[in-house]
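Incident log, support desk, overnight shift.

02:14 A customer reports that sequence design results differ from what the structure should imply. Their input is reproduced verbatim below. On-call engineer (initials T.W.) acknowledged and began investigating.
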């Protein structure tokens, strides 16, 4: 049994090891200076604070519920936050340059598929653990927990849409400048200044989470992915390879 578990763990580690977090690869390559490292850490902390401030909108939004303007703001900032969590499966110069492999028109799609695969490997076990804890620790029927989780299914699509937008933003900001960081920092500060006094947010637009909203998100995600595929190039992706691998 122990040997079987060891093999399963080895297979799992091998599978996860095929994925590269793009910002992480840039750090490993030695191309990330101390100043840029501090900047990235500060950006991540600020973005995490923004997402935390806007989290009540997601916690209160179920299928059939009403969403407000700040809900869309939360999705937008979730996309900015996910820029540092994008992944690429089998990132190697042979994969990029091999004939008939990944070409310019599919790089964005490959990044999206890789990132979504890691998200599923992360969030689905957490949901299963949450259901198990409620059942074992609080005697809540599994069916009730599954129904509750299903009522928040729109968040999965919003996370997918935010991830697609993050793929586009990463393509635009792959060679980030100080001006880019200052602009994003100013947006974060402005959002916090506006949001903090109104937390938790309870604005109303009359728009409900339903089929129309779902189709709108899918349409936006599709259009964004098309643009992202056009913007991602082998040259932009090559900066995330290990030093000396090209």
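02:41 Re-run completed on a clean worker. Output:
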């Amino acid at each position: 049994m122990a040997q079987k578990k060891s093999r399963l763990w080895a297979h799992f580690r091998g599978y996860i090891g095929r994925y590269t977090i793009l910002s992480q690869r840039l750090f490993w390559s030695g191309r990330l200076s101390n100043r840029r490292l501090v900047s990235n850490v500060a950006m991540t902390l600020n973005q995490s604070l923004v997402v935390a401030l806007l989290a009540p909108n997601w916690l209160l939004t179920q299928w059939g519920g009403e969403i407000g303007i700040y809900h869309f703001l939360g999705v937008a900032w979730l996309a900015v936050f996910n820029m540092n969590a994008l992944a690429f499966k089998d990132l190697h110069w042979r994969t990029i340059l091999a004939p008939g492999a990944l070409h310019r028109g599919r790089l964005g799609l490959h990044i999206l598929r890789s990132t979504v695969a890691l998200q599923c490997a992360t969030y689905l076990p957490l949901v299963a653990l949450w259901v198990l804890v409620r059942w074992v620790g609080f005697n809540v029927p599994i069916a009730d927990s599954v129904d509750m989780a299903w009522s928040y299914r729109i968040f999965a699509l919003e996370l997918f849409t935010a991830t697609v937008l993050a793929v586009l933003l990463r393509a635009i900001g792959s060679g980030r400048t100080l001006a880019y960081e200052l602009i994003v920092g100013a947006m974060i500060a402005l959002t916090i200044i506006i949001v903090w006094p109104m937390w938790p947010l309870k604005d109303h637009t009359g728009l409900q989470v339903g089929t129309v909203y779902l189709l709108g998100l899918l349409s936006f995600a599709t259009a964004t992915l098309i643009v992202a595929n056009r913007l991602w190039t082998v040259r932009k992706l090559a900066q995330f390879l290990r030093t000396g691998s090209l």
